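Title: Comparing notes on inverse folding

I've been comparing how different people in this forum approach sequence design from structure. To keep things fair, I'm posting one structure and asking everyone to reply with a full sequence. Here's the target:
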């Protein structure tokens, strides 16, 4: 859901890593970077695994708030 909310494709420098903590919480780390690697935006959020789609959308919103749209639009 993070990649969809960002409008991502295989051509864009977008990454996501989802893990489950020992306590059973979903941790999502998202990143958007420039192709040359000079700028890397990061965001993360955790919550219940059942909220995975919402967590993905919220991480995307955090990345967009940090300027990810300008990176995505130039790729």
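Reply #1:
Here's my take.
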């Amino acid at each position: 859901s993070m990649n969809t909310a960002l409008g991502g494709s295989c051509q864009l420098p977008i990454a996501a890593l989802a893990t489950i903590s020992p306590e059973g919480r979903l941790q999502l780390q998202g990143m958007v970077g420039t192709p040359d690697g000079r700028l890397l935006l990061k965001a993360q959020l955790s919550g219940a695994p059942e909220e995975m789609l919402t967590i993905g959308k919220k991480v995307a919103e955090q990345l967009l708030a940090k300027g990810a749209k300008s990176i995505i639009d130039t790729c």
